Amino acid sequence: MASLMPLLPFAPASESWDSYLTRFDCYVQANELTEVSGEHKRGLFLCLCGPEVFETARALVAPLAVQAALWDTIQEKLRNHYAPKPSKIAARHAFYHQNQAEGESINNYTATLRQAAMHCELRDLDDALMDRIVCGVRDIRLQRRLLAKPDFTLQKATEAAAASETQKIRKASSPRLARKPVPVHHKEASRDEASSSEDDDVHQTKRERGEFQQKSKDQSECAGCEGNHSRAKCRFRDAICRKCSRRGHIAKVCRSAPSDTHTPTDSQVQVFTSVRQGKLFRSHQLPLPVWNHNWPNRLAYAMQAERRCAH
C-alpha cells in the first residue's frame, strides 16, 4: 500500500492535544501500522510532531534521551503538559453554565455540551445533557413547551428543538402573501366610481367633523354662568347682571368694561361705629365702595357694619 501524506505538525492555536493524538492514531491505522511496536510508533511520532513538540518532549523526559524513553511515558508527559486534566468541579461549573449562543443551531449546541462534559465525570451523561438543553436554549417558547412535558428523553428534547428551529427558518424564508391584484379593465371601468367614492369619503369626514364640533360645543361651559351645561338649561337666562345691568348672564362672566360708577376709588365713605365693651368704647373704621342704584341704602349698610363690630 502506498504511503499517505505526512501528518501535519501539532498547532496548539487551532486544535487540542487530544485531537492531535487522535489524528496520529488514525494516521497509524491508515498506514496499517497498528501492530508495530511502541518504539516504531515513538520514532514515527517524533518525526511528524514538529520541532516545537519535539523540543518539549526532550525537556520533559530529561535527563533521559527522548529516543530512549518509552512511548507511553512520552504520551503521558506531553498530555500533562498540553492538556492537563482540569478540576472536576471547574469542568461541571463550565458545563452547567454553557448556554446556547446566538445563531447556534441545536445540533452544534449539543456537540458543545458533549465536549464540555468530557471532564465532568457525570454519572448519567444523557440526563445531564437533557437538563442543560432545556435550561440553556434561547427560544423561550420552546423552553416552556419542554418544561410543560411531564417526562421526555434527550432524543425527544433534541427533536423538539430541531423541529422548532426548522419551523423558524421556514417561516423567515417564506415570502409574504402578496395582495391580490385588481384586474386592469376593472380599474378603468370603475375610475369614475372610485372618484365618486373618494368624494363621498370627503363629505362623510366633513359631516363627522361637524358633528364632533357641535357635540363639543354643546358640552362646553355655559356662557351665562360658566356652568357645565348647555345655555338653554341655564337658570340664569333671565338674570340681570350686577355689572352691566343687562339680562341673560351674571357678573362673574360679564365681558363689559367696568365703568367708573362701579369701580371703588380712593375716596371712600367711612362709617364710625362704637361698641361698648365693659367700660371701654372702641371705634371701627370700615371702607365702603361708591354707591350706585344697585347697592343697598347707606343706613342699612351702616347698621349691618355695626352689628358685625358688636360680635
Automatic annotation (TrEMBL):
The keyword Hydrolase does not apply. GO terms for molecular function: nucleic acid binding; zinc ion binding. Residues 185-194, 202-220 have a biased composition (Basic and acidic residues). The keyword Zinc applies. Transmembrane segments: none annotated. Keywords: Metal-binding, Zinc, Zinc-finger. Residues 169-184 have a biased composition (Basic residues). It comes from the Eukaryota. Residues 159-227 are annotated as: Disordered. This is XP_034969502.1LOW QUALITY PROTEIN: uncharacterized protein K02A2.6-like. It comes from Podarcis lilfordi (Lilford's wall lizard).
